[in-house]
Amino acid sequence: MATFIALFAGALAYAAVLTLAAVGFLLLYKATGVVNFAHGDLLTLGGFLAWWAIDDLGWPVVPGSLLAIALLAVVGVVLERVAYAPLRKRPQMTVIVATLAAALVIRALIGIWQGSEPRRLPGPLGDGAWHVAGAAIAWQRVLIVGVTVLVVGALVWAFKYTSFGRQVRALAADPDAAQLCGVRVRRVSMGAWALSGALAALAGILVAPLTVLDLNFGFAIMLGGMAAAVAGGFGNLGGAVLGCLGVGLVQQLLGGYVLRDYAGALPYLALFLVIAVRPQGLFKTHASRL
Amino acid sequence: MTETRNTFDPAVASGADPGADPGADPGAGPETGPEAAPAADSSGADTSAAADGRAPEPSGMHMLTAGLDTLRTRVGMAPRGTVKPPVYRRHQYLGVLAFVAVTAIAGPNLVSSAEGSNLLDLWLLYSLAGLGFYWIFGLGGRFAFCQTTMMAVGAYTSAYATEQHGRPFWQSALLGALAAGAVAAVVGLALARAQHFAFAIGTLAVSQIGMVVFARTSDFTGVNGQVTGLPYPSLFGHTFDSDRSAFWLFLGVLGLALLLGVFLERSPIGREAVAARDGEMVARTAGISVRRLHLMLYVLGSVAGGLSGALLANWQGFVGVDQFGLDLGIGIFLMVILGGAGSIWGPVLGAGFYVWAPKLLQEFKEYQGVLYGALLLVMIMICPEGLIGLAGRVRGLLRRAGVAGPAGVAGVAGVAAKVRAALPGRTAAPAGASASASDSASDSASDSGSASASASTGKESADV
User: Fold this and answer.
1) Which of B191, B373, B384 sits opposite A275 (nearest CB)?
2) Model confidence at B300, in pLDDT bands (50, 70, 90)?
3) Is B34 in the same domain as B107?
4) Looking at A74-83, A146-155, B45-54, B144-153, which range is the least confident one?
């Protein structure tokens, strides 16, 4: 029972991590139609910026993390100006390659700035754990699940009730019609990039204390999030959350009990099967922009 | 895009553009295709006949390409002008032979150091893998993340056949290539219905599964995915026991693969692939079996990848999981994009760049990633057709500038030399090789028809 609870908590936390990563690039995808392959490296950058603020500047954990999140929002806008805005009228493949190039640059810059040795980022709640029925659940995991629920809730609310959210939804539904109706594409695009960068930093800062922070840290998480988002039906927020939950459960429970050695491959196997059987994703009902 | 008016130059960017896919706009395909094609057909034939005094293309194919151009205009892309099917370009096979000859002469003579010949071999093998990726991505328009996984499958299979069953080199290499092809066939069939992004993510899943499986199954891939102590490759009783001798083997294999590449481009398969890539709905309407075509190109490209991996394993004597990681995956993608995804010479040129750039920039080693990324960004913004496209563009500009007389010829030669000097991936060693690659490719990409590098200057003066 204790093992099950620990594994289940692990699954929930892992799903929350993937969800946090996934909402960042899904938001951007909805607003601009870009699949941002630099998102994973933004996660890494967020982690390293927080580490820099906390360790080098000596800030406390929470303000340091907030600083990193704010900085990443700025980085998001810079990326929009440098790598996306000049290519907005170009074919999508060009833009995707540009984001991949941006990912390479960001990763290399982090390597030059901080070196490649792995770090350990402190969490805001310390190293304590919550003991339930004999299982120890790290506070950080509880925090991740809580923050993820808050973030997803806030995003759903914002999509529904704010002007920005409605503009994003209009752009996702039909970019040309939205533009004709007066949606300010440029402004929404910059806002979405900033928000996406901030979400990436948030995800990176929350996940980093549970694992080691190195140059490949974010990219792996992003791939997992992308896999979950595709399995859920790309562009569909609810589907992505469910996909992340499915990936978390498959990896932790199935990998924890049965196929221990191959746990890392299980989510991808599930993803492959989903794409083979239902290429549009599990919860997709209509054609998407891709 | 106006420079490429007379050239058949499928740009990367438009090729795999999901936005231009008529599937995204269900009304566009059937509506534009038949209705607009005849008009565009006649005008297109006029211009092509007027421009170079040649007979217009066969009408069926031409109607199709004209229809595609109309489609492009409709979805907001520049029409490509007169499209010249590759079969009208001359001396393409000779171009391959010239490339092999020039490399064979220049390579060993210019490279003297041990490291140099090592890099030369690596370049040939990466070119082979890149060529495979070009078939999948450049020609087929499908982005497969798992080219390095196919290389790993080839490497492990050939290592297994050699070590556990004592097969001779040629059999185990062939087995490696076939195993990669078999894996690709299964994956390709399973992902047949997946569209662009889903296919990319599905193949990404394959590569992630492969990573874990190779590291964990110790009886097939060795403990932790490490196989060591493979014997040198040997063929017909001759053992290729050094980098210098293996060069000949790899050059031969790459030459054969390039010949196959030219054959593909000139065959109906190549034309159908381009049509399916640029306008899937139109291609389907014209009776092209797009799925079978995609599957075939995917399997073929994977076989090239597997063969490259098998040769790499036998040459280096060991196989490790890390060799075929994400870095090389991105590297292969870089090769094809930087070199140019519109021509079989793109990957060859790009692989040269990928192999030699780190060596040239040794003092800037830590900035290498920044440089790659920035270069990729600049390239995709300024010249999405890659280095090959850049060379073709310069040529087109020169021709348009109307260089005439002896002075003009001198000017052409001077600028061509400058372009060659400016091409990255050029060192003292491979200068002949990479320059000749770009030369012959841009030749065959333009309509001058002089594909052989050695004859290019003479031919140019004749042109002018």
Assistant:
1) B191
2) very high
3) no
4) B45-54
Q: Of residues B411 and B49, which shows the higher confidence score?
A: B411
B238-239/B234-235 β-pairing: antiparallel
Which residues of B fall within a CB distance of 8 Å from A223?
Answer: 204, 208
Domain boundary among B71, B87, B103: B87
Give the number of other CB atoms < 10 A from CB of residue B358: 14
Range of the domain at B61: 2-87
| Residues B40 and B57 grouped into a single domain | yes
What pLDDT score does B140 carry?
85
pLDDT digits (tens, 9 = 90+) for B286-298: 888 888 999 999 9
**What is the per-residue pLDDT across A135-179, written as a single tens digit (0 to 9) for each?**
777 778 888 889 999 999 998 898 889 988 888 888 888 888 888
Map tokens 């075929």 to a residue.
B324
B15 with A93: Cβ contact below 8 A? yes
Domain borders along chain A are 24-217
Does residue B432 sit within a domain?
no
Is residue B411's pLDDT more than 70? no
Q: What is the pLDDT of residue B464?
A: 32
Beta-bridged to residue B235, according to DSSP, are B238
Residues B330 and B203 in one domain: yes
Domain membership of residue B457 (yes or no) is: no
CB < 8 Å to A101, chain B: 372-374, 376-377, 380
Clarify whether residues B131 and B246 are in a common domain. Answer: yes
Could you give the residue ranges of the DSSP H alpha helices within A208-236? 217-232
Transcribe A170-187 into DSSP letters: HHHH-HHHHHHTT--HHH
A·B CB contacts under 8 A: 145
- Cβ distance B202 to A104 less than 8 Å, yes or no, reads no
Question: Among all residues of chain B, which has the CA nearest to that of A266?
Answer: B209
Residues B75 and B163 placed together within one structural domain of the fold: no
Of B209, B372, B380, the CB nearest to A98: B380
Do B131 and B210 lie in one domain? The reply is yes
Q: CA-to-CA distance for A42 and A76, rounded, in angstroms?
A: 8
pLDDT above 80 for B333: yes
The C-alpha angle with vertex A267 and arms to A264 and A268, in degrees rounded to 5, equals: 90
Structure tokens at A150: 């808050």
> Does some domain include residue B427?
no
Please give the Cα distance from B105 to B251 (Å, whole number): 11
Query: What confidence category does residue B57 fall into, taking pLDDT thresholds of 50, 70 and 90?
Result: very low
Measured between beta carbons, the chain B residues lying within 8 angstroms of A262 are 212-213, 216
Do B373 and A92 make contact, defined as CB atoms within 8 angstroms?
no
Rg (CA), chain B: 22
Per the rule left: phi > 0, alpha: psi between -120 and 50, beta: everything else, B162 is alpha
H helix count then E strand count, chain B? 20, 2
Query: Is B361 an 8 Å CB contact of chain A?
Result: no
In a domain, B331, yes or no: yes
Q: What distance in Å separates the CA atoms of residue B121 and residue B224, rounded to the nearest whole number?
A: 27
Structural domain count, chain B: 2
Clarify whether residues B225 and B342 are in a common domain: yes
Find, in chain A, the residue whose alpha carbon is nearest to that of B143.
A93
Whether residues B30 and B110 fall in one domain: no
**Which of A108, A226, A264 faces B370 most closely, judged by CB atoms?**
A108
- What's the gap in Å between the CA of B76 and the closest CA on chain A? 9
Lowest mean pLDDT among A43-57, B308-322, B447-461: B447-461
**Token code pair at residue B300:** 């073929």
CA–CA min distance A273, chain B (Å): 8
Residues A183-200: tens digit of each pLDDT: 888 888 899 999 999 999
Residue range B120-144: mean pLDDT, rounded? 89
Q: Which of residues 92-151 of B touch A (CB under 8 A)?
A: none
Cα A33–A35–A39 angle (5° rounding)? 130
3-state secondary structure of B234: strand
